[in-house]
Model the fold of this input.
Amino acid sequence: EVRLLGRAQLVEPGGQAYTAVVEPVAVPQDHWATGILGSTNAVTLGADHVGALTFSGPGAGRYETASAVLTDLVDVLLGTVPTASPLGDRALRNARDEVTGRWYVRSSDALSDQLEPLLERTHLTGPLSGLTRVVARDELAPWLDDLGSCVIRWEPAASARSQVCMKTSAV
Done:
């Protein structure tokens, strides 16, 4: 199944670099996100001593979400909520493009000649497509920016543990 997952994870010892991304992910049938259906939201936290903890509940509807966003904006404008970062002045660096993994890519004709060196396996029908070898996310920038291409993160069952992972909806 393909699920839209949001992830946040520290990627450097000492916690100075992080990655945060929302992307379509191909997950195996035994992945925790496949059991979350409809508008239900879920968050999974990876902890050292207890493993993965998943919390789920009903998602907000459009009116509830709009009300919450407007309330937050009014609170900020009126100064009724703290606006300081809980991180203080700690300098963080977004390492999203440095994160490595495997992706299923279907390329537009315009970029297909550039894709072949990145592929581990190809599909022989239709436009050039296949599963990449392990690559850094920034190597896929041409396909991520191309409206005629499709990029889906490939996640085998063994790598399904994340620091924080949120299922937002089925794709």
About this structure: The CA atoms of residues 110 and 148 lie 9 Å apart. Residues 157-165, 167-171 have pLDDT under 50 and may be disordered. The two ends are 9 Å apart (CA to CA).
